[in-house]
UniProtKB/TrEMBL annotation:
UniProt-recorded name of the protein: OmpA family protein
Organism expressing this protein natively: Mucilaginibacter corticis
CDD domains found in the cross-reference section: OmpA_C-like
PROSITE patterns for this protein: OMPA_2 (PS51123), PROKAR_LIPOPROTEIN (PS51257)
Any one GO CC term of the record: cell outer membrane
Predominant place of localization: membrane
Amino acid sequence: MKAIRNSIVAVAIGISVLGAGCSSFNKTQKGAAIGAGAGGTIGALIGHSAGNTALGAIIGGAVGGTAGALIGHKMDKQAAEIKQTVPGASVVRQGEGIVVKFDSGILFDVNKTDLKSAAQTNLINLAASLQKNPQTNITIVGHTDNTGSDDLNMGLSIKRAQAVKNFIVANNVDGSRLTTVGKGESEPIADNSTADGRAQNRRVEIAIVANDQMKQQAAQGN
């Protein structure tokens, strides 16, 4: 366990140095540099250690180098498209992938797992982008605040992630590309002691990464 912690710290420091040295890089170039420096296994450990499952999915799947730069270029285009067509989401390019974040209030009523009708347009547009970019895998991660019991929050986060998956699949996206994860209250991004912080923690994050076919094509320079 100590060895794993040391590896995480060492690679995290390496990424920090890379980030400092590459401040002028665009997202594609940063993705290539970080991927080459971290590698898949250590990247997954860093993501888990940082308490961010979506980020871990992206870093853990990174290939780095020239192939990573080509993947990053494709992700740049898809991220720009999602930003234009899914106004209810926060879209962030990260490494060789994309994180799409919805506040739960946009998708669900309080303590509910049925999608709001107003949320469906956002997800229909997201599904359309996923259809046009079939060489990706998608991880859907549900999160809650700390109100209520651990078991209640875990169950709520799982059901909400599954509800998003089901809707996207119903809009003609291959279900084998999608994985769901419920994290309950275990990965807060804000202070749960404030109403604003709790609202930020109630969210669904969607990580989009290259599948094996895209990675193979990128390795061949395509």
